[in-house]
Amino acid sequence: MELRLKYAESLFLLVIGAVSVLFLVLSREYSAMARSVPNICAVFALLTIAFRLWQIWSRDSLRGAVLRIHQRSVPFIIMLAVYTAGVFLIGFMLSSLVFVPVCMYWMGQRQIFRIAVITVAYVALIYLVFVVGFRMPLPDSLVGF
């Protein structure tokens, strides 16, 4: 499948912008300390997105360029959407314990021991950095995990 790069990049930037805005809205419930750095990053992302969209559409810098979409990218986007919903429904830890090994297996990693070690190390590192180190709560879930 092929898309004109101008439209593909614009769509990608708009999706990232929408996620940034959604984050800014949802993070209002967190403490000022917990949301300060991520909010600065989200605002910076929005400014960068606005500038890049202006570049694309005012200068027509991507005229004629075509983006070839690999056949494996659509299932990966679907997996990311399911992971995002999983973080909301069952929490970051449980959904990461499912998403990381599924994604690694789908990408071609067949050594189960390596998948397990990387998954546990990733989840433990995220927990240590954010919960222990920064004292920032991981996203809550609907079921309370």
TrEMBL record:
Sequence intervals crossing the membrane: 6-25, 37-57, 77-100, 112-134
Extent of the signal sequence: none
Organism: Aminivibrio pyruvatiphilus
Keyword Transmembrane: yes
Domain DUF1468, residue spans: 11-139
InterPro entries registered for this protein in UniProt: DUF1468 (IPR009936)
Pfam families: TctB
Keyword line: Membrane, Transmembrane, Transmembrane helix
Protein name: Tripartite tricarboxylate transporter TctB family protein
